[in-house]
C-alpha cells in the first residue's frame, strides 16, 4: 500500500509550513518514490516495525529495502512508523526490546531517520492489541513512551481522535507533556 498524507503542522519560527509526505506499509520501488518526489512529495514515512503478534513484533521485512529505494530516489527527509506489538493474549517483546531492534536496524544499515512515529491504533481483527481497558491501555502507552524516551530517538504519536478515545476513553488524555 502506498498512500499520501500531510503532516500538519510543522512550526518554523512564526510561520506554518505544510509537508507533503508519502506513507508506505509495503515495499516501494525507487521508480515509485521518484514519481512521488517529482509530484512534490518531500518526505517519506516508512513502516519500520510491525506488531507481528505471533512472534512478538518484528522489524518490517520491507523497511530497509524501501528506505534504500527512497534514498536512491533522492529523499533525505525520511521518518518511520512503529506499530508496536502489545495485547494481553500476545507474547510480545518488551517495548524496550522492540525499540532496540529498531535501533539495531538503523545502525546495521547506516539509516538516517528523523522521527519514529508511534502508531497507536486498535487492531482487534488480527492481534487484538490494546485490549487492557482504558486504564490499562494508558499504562501500556506510558510504558511504551518511557521505552522510546530512554532510547534518545526523536518520536511522535500517530493516531486519530476516534482511535485515541477508543484506546484511552477520551480525546483529552495526555500521554506525555514534555
From TrEMBL:
The keyword Secreted does not apply. It comes from the Eukaryota. Keywords: Hydrolase, Signal. The keyword Hydrolase applies. One of its GO terms (molecular function) is lysozyme activity. Residues 1-17 form the signal peptide. This is Glycoside hydrolase family 25 protein. GO terms for biological process: cell wall macromolecule catabolic process; peptidoglycan catabolic process; signal transduction. It comes from Sphaerobolus stellatus (strain SS14). Belongs to the glycosyl hydrolase 25 family.
